[in-house]
Amino acid sequence: MANLTVYVIRHGETLLNSFNRMQGWCDSDLTKKGRQDAIKTGQTLSSVHFDYAYSSDLNRAIDTKNLILQQLDQVPPVSKVNSDFREVLFGYFEGLDSDATWKQVGQPAGYNTQEEIIADKGLIEARRLMHLADPSNLAETYAQVIKRWQAGLNQLRKDAHDNANILLVTHGTFIRTLADYHHINTLDNYPKNGGISILKLSDNDSQLITYNE
Predict the structure, then answer these.
(1) pLDDT (tens digit, 9 = 90+) per residue, 116-128?
(2) Pairing of strands 165-170, 196-202
(3) Cα gap 194→101, rounded to integer Å
(4) How far apart are CA 33 and CA 22, in angstroms?
(5) Residues 49, 87, 116, 182: which is the catalytic one?
(6) What pLDDT, on a 0 to 100 scale, did the predictor assign at position 56?
(7) Which architecture, in CATH terms, is 3-89+140-210?
(8) What average pLDDT does the segment 143-164 reach?
(9) Known active-site residue 11
(10) Where in the chain are the domains?
(11) Which of 3, 39, 51, 178 is packed most tightly, with the most Cβ within 10 A?
(12) Mean pLDDT of 154-183
């Protein structure tokens, strides 16, 4: 039986973050601040005994994970990457200005920002509207993101021993989606770079007990 504690971390700030660009499966390097984000998070978690360390397969998550590991009193013996923990795919909108993107996505339904959509209809609708607006038809829906998340969790259950502590470095909209799935209000509370959320994972259930601290 799996009883796992997963420390879910957003990667440090990247160049595209600093430019307010859509950054899903496209990638960019950590900024100086981003490296500091990761180091600070590692220092906060330095006394936690981690048994496993995971990240998505995108370099910004891998680099953040490695910087965190350098701060720990004891480095976990297992470190892996898993593409199931990638950021949400934004399709055609990858790399574009975030504000302009959400205006384009939302205006046909009467919205100008992502937060307006979420406040009125929720995150599922925000993902649906982006998918509808994407000429490439690649932008992921809420259901597709959750399916990936659950596949990743099942791999953790398979890999980890009972009562393990797991470090997981992933991405902002991905974390926001899993928080929403666990009935946490994320309106105007987007995961900060280096922010810590804690998930309790059993064989058949998951509970997000801390979000974006």
Answers:
(1) 999 999 999 999 9
(2) unpaired
(3) 25
(4) 19
(5) 87
(6) 99
(7) 3-Layer(aba) Sandwich (3.40)
(8) 97
(9) yes
(10) 3-89+140-210, 93-138
(11) 178
(12) 98
Return the pLDDT at 1: 58
**Token representation of residue 5:** 């504690």
Kindly report the length of the chain.
213
Q: What's the average model confidence in pLDDT over 122-146?
A: 99
- A 10 A CB-CB count for 31 gives 17
- Tens digit of pLDDT for each residue in 5-50? 999 999 999 999 999 999 999 999 999 999 999 999 999 999 999 9
Which segments are annotated as binding site for substrate? 10-17, 60
Q: Which of 11, 94, 131, 140 is catalytic?
A: 11
Measure Cα distances from 87 to 82, 188, 207 in Å: 11, 19, 20
- 125 annotated active-site: no
pTM: 0.97
Strand blocks (E) in the chain: 3-10, 52-55, 78-81, 165-170, 196-202, 206-210
Residue 96, SS3 per DSSP? coil
Q: What are phi and psi of 3, to 5 degrees?
A: -130, 95
Q: Angle CA(210)–CA(82)–CA(61) in degrees, nearest 5? A: 65
In the chain, what percentage of residues exceed pLDDT 70? 100
Q: Are strands 165-170 and 3-10 parallel, antiparallel or unpaired?
A: parallel
Residues tagged in the binding site annotation: 10-17, 60
Interior/surface letters 148-158, b for 16+ CB within 10 angstroms, e for the rest: bbeebbeebbe
Q: What gap in Å lies between CA 180 and CA 176, rounded to an integer? A: 6
